[in-house]
Amino acid sequence: MWGSPNATAHVEPLLETYHAGALAPEDAARVERHLRACAACREQSDAIAVYQIIRSAPAPTVGPELRQRLYTRIAEAERADVRAARAASHARLRARFASNTDPAARSYVVLARGGWLSGAAAALIVALLVGMFWALPHIRQGGKRATHPTTP
To answer: What's the whole-model pTM score?
Structure first.
């Protein structure tokens, strides 16, 4: 496969094994000779070496204080986004409903202003129904108060 020591065949398939240290000594010597002569394989070999160094490096650890600061910044950014979206939505609604030419705008303004009135009407109806059911036994007895039998 190798032919002469100055063989022009590229050694890219052997480079990972070479960097792992799993090649036989004579094959490793041939790869090294080829790398001195071939810039393309040398560049590939350097990339594999860097990748193996990075892969073997320990993973960084994050302390609890850094994690807490990160989560706080994320939460603040989300709150700012929500506030900005609400402000933009309110501005669009104000701009749309400021012109009373839009029929939907007029009904929205009437409903928004009269919302408390419908709530008060609903509360009054509920109060009347409760009062009616509470007074129903008295009405059936002709206005007399119900008496309870006493034991002698």
So the answer is: 0.35
